[in-house]
Structure formats: structure tokens, C-alpha cells
Fold Exopolyphosphatase.
Amino acid sequence: MTRFGAVDCGTNSIRMLITDVRRGDDGVLELTELHRVMEIVRLGEGVDATGRLADAALERVRGALTNYADLMRAEGVEAVRMVATSASRDASNRDEFFAMTREILSDWGVEAQVISGDEEAALSFRGAVDDFHPEEGPFCVIDVGGGSTEVIVGDYDGTVHGALSVPMGSVRLTERFLVDSPPPPDQVEAARRYVADQTKRVLESVPLAGARTIVGCAGTFTTLTALAQGLETYDPSAIHLSTLRFGALRSLNQSVLDTDRRTLAENPVMHPGRADVFAGGVVVIDGLMDMFEAANAEAKEKGTRDAVPLEFHVSEKDILDGIVAGLVDERLARAQG
């Protein structure tokens, strides 16, 4: 068929996936990942306080996106979709951001598209469950970003039973609560209270007890599993489909909260720029574990089975893979029409 490019610009990072899609001799589509890259650009830096995207942040995005466009051009990418989430949704100078993306992606006639929390969750779900077996569902997919976290429960075929996007993420919590490094107990407690309020909304809106497998995706989850495994370098093949059990993860998370950013940054699995906001992501995941434990306790009280195993299965696939899948669907629909 062709080569597709997906770009996701979130609050903390901008990432790109280039995928080659061909039809095999048996007629089945074969997807081959050519490039998956990420750069920390902190687009959402200060947005929570100022309501606007900082000039320096926009320049960081410009540099990274220009490099991505050059690579997509060199790889012969024919169709591109770029999505923008959380940080750019409400910024007062968002038009400046979109004009920049339109200029850089002019070869493909596209610009960044702001997507809703629901669409972000659906795209993340589609990508995250791709390498699991259908019978492992229903799945609860959790995408912890810089500004928001998406929680979606659904089946392998994409049928959604419930989803919610809540404004808690690694950058948002760090800037709002975790000012010092390592953060003192009062800052951590304030962040935990905020997360508890957000996860309560998820408990009330999403049928967590119906899930059989919990899937965590994006940088906080993948970095935590790299730390848990004691990897000497960031190895996607070792991280993908690995498991983080709640008990051990709580101990690891506490050790992260007790460690200053400079020391965290020295770990070779820590992507440059992530250490500054890692504590915020860890507090989010602590709150998510509390949420699932509460869901299980409620299920037990009602006499139903303990439906949600208290462990995260970590996926290296995420919203980027969901975007590519959507581009493939569009190409097939046009061919059939």
C-alpha cells in the first residue's frame, strides 16, 4: 500500500511513528514499524499558570517537528496525521501553534488537529491492545500524559464500554504541586488529594470492574517498567508486554519520590527531560492503583468476582499506532469506494 506517518504532540513530548503498510501474498495487511521517535519539548510548560504556550516551548516544537518532517520526506511517507492534545486545547495563542504545524507539514497538506479526550482515549486504546489476544479482554487502557490521563474500557474489536479523560498528568501535577525535588510529604499529599478527586470521577463513569486486563501506555509506564527490570539501556522489546504488579510498583514509586531529579536523570533509561516531571506521573499511577483497588473492594462487597487483576501490562504501542490504523482505514475506504 504505502507509508504512513503519525505525529502526537502532547503536553510533555512530541512523538512520531512511520509505518510501512503492505498486503501480503495471503491478502493480509502487514504493518512494519520503520521509525518511532520521541523528543521532550514541554509544550505545556507554564500553560497551567499563564493560559498560553511559551515562545521557547513553541520553538522547541518547531525544531523537533521540522526534523520529523525531514525524516518522513526521506522515507517517502504519503499520508500524515498530526494530533495535538491537552496543552494546546485551551491555550490563548493556539493559532500560532497550528500555523507553525501547517507550514512544516505543507508537503502533506495537513496541520495539527486538536482532538477531544474521548478521541484521544479511543486512539490510544486501538494502538495499545494491538498485540494482545482478544480473549484477554475486555481491556482497560490507561494513557498517562503530561496534562491529562485517558481511561477507556473496551473489547479488542474496538467496542467501547466507557471512557473518560481527566486533567491529571506528569507536567500538570509537577508544576501545580511538586515544586521541590524530591518533593516533601505535604506537596505529595496535596498532589494525591487532587488525583483522588479525578480518579473518583473515573470510578463513577467507567465500568472498571468489567475489565480483565489493565494496559498502561506512554512514557511514565514504560520508564517505570524499565526501572523495575533494572535495564541498562531503554529497550522497547524488553518493555513491551511486560508486567508491573501493584505491590512491587508501590515500593518502586516511593523510591522515585524519594529521589531528586538530578539523580533520576542520570539513569540511562530515563529519557532526557522526563526526570523533571517523573514524580508527577508516579503520583498519578499511585492514584490509579488506589482506584482499581477500590473497584475490586466494591465488587467483592456486591458478591461479584474480583474482576480486575492488580497489575499493569505495559504496551509500547499507543496513540501513534491508533492514528496509523485510522489512516489505513481511510485509504482502504477510498479504494473500495
